[in-house]
Amino acid sequence: MVDSGIRIENNVLKSREVSRPINFPDLGSLILEYLEINADTVAQIDPTTGEEQTRGEMRDKSIRCALWMRSQGVGVGDVIAISCNDQLIAATPCFATLLLGAIVNPLHAEFNTSELRYLLRTNRPKMAFADEESAVTLAEAANTEGLDLKIVVLGQAAGFFEFAKIISEPGVEDIKNFKTTPLESPDAIATIMYTSGTTGLPKGVAVSHAVWLNTLLQTVLPCTTHETFISFASVYWVTGITSILMTVFPRYLAIIPPPFEEHLTCRLTEKYKINRLMLSPNMVIGLVKSDALGKYDLSSVKTVFYGGSALDDSLVKTFAKYLPENVSIFSVYGLTETCGRITSRLFNSKSKQNSCGKLMDNVQMKVVDPETGRIMGPNETGELFLKCEGKMFSSYYNNPEATAEAMDKEGWFHTGDLGYYDEDGEIFIVDRLKEMIKYRDHRISPIEIESVLLSHPGVKEVAVVGLPHPEDQERPLAFVVKVKRSSDDGEEVTEKELVDFVAAKLENAKHLHGGVRFVDSLAKTLSQKVRRRFMRELAKSSTQQ
After folding, report:
1. Domain assignment of residue 196, yes or no
2. Domain containing 329 — which CATH number?
């Protein structure tokens, strides 16, 4: 029984169609206005140094940076790379770029020369802002590619423009009279972000000003109370850019953390009375498997968002025991191509176990058989196709082949995710299409086996992949990171114990016929998703030795 907001028509799941007026022509105009009218409010705090940054300071620095960029010939449509993991610093060139109608292209500061060459070759940025270490790597990559790239170092390093100096050049009158560069259309590209690259090379996702404005209007502006939030997402990811844009609005205060660590997260939550936690599933697992949750005061937490991959409800239930009774924990599903979340499920509500909730407004979904192309009905698993009014990416930047492969002629985006919806319109993600294990006549989801293994107290992290086999096609194999135990806590988990554990809970096809291999760590992408392709290659290579 589908409620009034969600309906099924000809096996297409549809949410409410809602029209929201957008009062800004572009992101630059929104940024400039909100930073000005809320100039005295603190937007960001660096807990490591204690530095606070007001919206007025962000506005001043962003305009100074934009004026210098304009003097260097930066204009509408130019790509500006930003390679810095520190959001406190990265916000300024990000805002400055949008004020000029140029395109924000975040890179990860840990990229090596080879990775940067691939991305520079595709996006051809005109200018880059980078921290000291990544500035050198960027310069090497640009020189190898024959790219004339102006690099501004966010610090000090010989041979580069220095950020502190360039923002000191414009005068007071120039700042006072500054105006954003107008765009011909809000459909102009605002950002180029990247897919996670778990199964292949990352693709540059081009998202327009209109889509970003609509996203902020739908997911950020509705907040009516003050929220202090923390997010560990790099500027490289859609969540990282969203976090930067949230700081424009006075209701939000961002705590800019060092890299994630369980005790650090809880300690900062206690110190700054954080209301909103934005976590990945792996971070939730890390917190549950650690002893940190019970050692700090987490009573300030009102909302938790997690998404990016599946997380079994049993782990979320354990997590919730350490949080206030009235906390709202949301499981969300979204992609870079949809500029973030398109479904939302409130844990412990009437939503069903392990669902990721229902479609947000202005979204359509259908489930398609990947082999026959048949549009499937409720409770039938297939590839998820999406239409998102006002939330869909423009293209894969300078990659028309990948764009045509992902977006069909009817405007449906092929997500590559396997899942289904039920008769009530709740959505369930099974796995990535490319990651399914083919065991004899069965198609097996690694996530299902991983969820079982993660419920074992001796397992800290796990990745299940298909091990090639001459008769069975592939056999499920688990790479496991053990929970470290002291001598007083008993023996660590064994392979046989885990094989038997899975066998007692799942049908034969889903048993660990490929065995268990213990590792010190799992190979992950920069967004902390498991690099499945690498793990599969590792499984094959170790078998051949």
Report:
1. yes
2. 3.40.50.12780
Residue with tokens 């998820």: 384
Q: What is the pTM of this model?
A: 0.85
* CATH of residue 499: 3.30.300.30
Tokens of 378: 């409720």
Same structural domain for residues 505 and 486?
A: yes
For residue 398, the enclosing domain spans 7-18+260-433
Domain identity same for 344 and 401: yes
Contact call for residues 89 and 139 (beta carbons, < 8 A): no
Residues in a beta bridge with 472 = none
Largest interatomic CA distance in the chain: 76
Contact in structure between 76 and 183 (CB atoms under 8 Å): yes
**Buried b / exposed e across 365-401, counting CB within 10 Å, b at 16+?**
bbbbebeeeeebebeebbbbbbbbebbbbbbbbbbee
DSSP secondary structure of 282-345: HHHHHHHHSS-GGGS--TT--EEEEESS---HHHHHHHHTTS-TT-EEEEEEEEGGGTEEEEEE
Ordered alpha helix ranges (H), 47-86: 55-71
Three-state SS string across 249-300, please? CCCEEEECCCCCCHHHHHHHHHHHCCCEEEECHHHHHHHHHCCCHHHCCCCC
186 within a domain of the structure (yes/no) = yes
The phi and psi torsions of 339 (rounded to 5 degrees) equal: 55, 45
- One domain, residues 85 and 135: yes
Q: Is residue 304 domain-shared with residue 404, that is, in the same domain?
A: yes
Distance CA 284, CA 294 (A): 14
Work out the burial of residue 487: count CB atoms within 10 Å of its CB; fewer than 13 is exposed, 13-18 middle, 19 or more buried: exposed
Using CA atoms, how far residue 61 sits from 32, 160, 357, in Å, is 12, 19, 41
Identify which of 532, 529, 499 has the alpha carbon closest to the alpha carbon of residue 514.
Answer: 499
**What's the chain's Rg over C-alpha atoms?**
24
CA distance 289 to 283: 10
- Report yes or no on 385 lying in a domain: yes
- Measure the CA dihedral 173/213/228/305, to 10°: -160
Distances (CA, A) of 497 to 152, 350, 456, 481, 517: 54, 35, 10, 14, 13
Do 267 and 367 fall into the same domain?
yes
Residue 398 Ramachandran class (φ > 0 left, ψ -120 to 50 alpha, else beta): left
CA-wise closest residue to 47 among 321, 325, 253, 330: 253
pLDDT along the chain (545 residues), means of 10: 76 92 93 94 95 96 96 97 88 97 93 89 95 92 95 92 92 89 96 75 91 88 82 87 93 93 97 95 90 96 87 88 94 92 83 87 95 95 94 94 94 93 92 82 85 91 90 90 73 92 92 94 77 83 62
Contact 513, 442 (CB under 8 A): no
Give how many domains the chain has, as a whole number: 3
What angle separates helix 495-503 from helix 446-454, to the nearest 10 degrees? 110
Token couple for 427 = 């959505």
395, β-bridge pairs: 206
